[in-house]
## 1
Amino acid sequence: MAEIINTPDAPGSAAYGSFPYSQAVKAAGLIFVAGQGPFDPSSGKVVGATIQEQTRQALANCDAILRAAGSSMARVVNATFILRHSEDFGGMNEEWIRWFPTDPPARQGAKHPLDVEGIRISIAMIAEA
């Protein structure tokens, strides 16, 4: 049976314009974390101007959700990142390696088709429960 995961330590759907979604769903021994942008959990405002700062905040949001679900970043098996600007790939990787210095998860990336004001990255993850 699926379990909905929500924590005040990560932004809720209001940060994204009140879209109906769960921060994560735990099912089948896995945790599926919805795409997390660089939003401050308290204010809902975008954190950082650089891709490194925004990647750090998006990963911190994923981390908070995984901890609320009883898991951790060390248990991430797959990640998807979406960049607003393809030239941000190198800067995103600079921060990524700090969070996953060894044995990083499988991942895929894409360029965001929408021009969302101020947001340079979104990250979704799948982790072991």
## 2
Amino acid sequence: MRTTYDFAPLWRSTIGFDRLFDLVDAAQQAGTEDNYPPCNVERLGEDRYQISLAVAGFSADEIAITAEQSVLTVEGRKSEKQQREFLYQGISSRPFKRQFNLADYVQVKGAAFDNGLLQIELVREIPEAMKPRRITIDGAPASNVRQIDGKAA
């Protein structure tokens, strides 16, 4: 069974879709990634999103969030202050790095740490110049158009 796709024919006829093809390639390789810590990605509204990461055992100062162009990176590194002897360790404290690809105009609005969950708020803010706008049509009124008088109902 073939698991990779050849995008060479599309490269010849598309311009500016490099990022899309990179995302597809990354998605094919995503099965081999480590999915720690577990997370939820929610849509809160038409242009609002929230990423929640379960980071039990980490404090806010042990986590770094970086937004760079279209990639959001969350990194965590536990600072061991004391040597501890565990009889059983079920709560992982290994370092992690999770990356999320963001669509155009999606920005990080804030982050909160609550009950072992790191919640990152995202908002899509389309610039005014990119929003659809009505274009007026200039020109002389047509000479053969007559207005019919009528009473309003």
## 3
Amino acid sequence: MNSSQSIDFAMIFDRAPVGLCVSHQRVITACNEALAGIFGTSAGALAGLSFSVLYPTMDEFERTGERIAPILNQHGHYSDERIMKRANGELFWCHVTGRALQRDEPHAAGIWSFEDLSSKRPVTAELTIREREVAALLVSGKTSKLIARQLGLSPRTVEMYRAKLMKKFNATTSGELVHRLLVGTQAG
């Protein structure tokens, strides 16, 4: 690229093929149309709002923030797949990746990307808040012991939630449950 060409970073951000946003203290300071489209609203409507509007419940918003802060502190970035909520109330699986711009203050400022996974992984069962959290960690390959540590639960409690999920998804093994969570089927 020669020096007479300039890069319009604002246009690149706005037209990126993935949902992007910049945050300050878990408030959306700027987002692109791709992100707004994923959540069924406009970029202008999201600017200035708390990330909490993207979560199924306030409890999930708060617990996710508590869970990811130490990871952002340690690594400076975070990624997972979780169930999020569109403006119309529809729940869907979403891949979320973020980077803290101030590693020692993980929620101070960040850049986040969102990928809608609903075409590959529809939400097919009514799940409780904890079932959604356990399901998200199961599909990321975590064991019951790791899930328990991450959620602040006992491994036995995690096993109870896994059993409930297996029943809801008509799965007979943990591997079958993870497969059904990944493809969004309840019965085989």
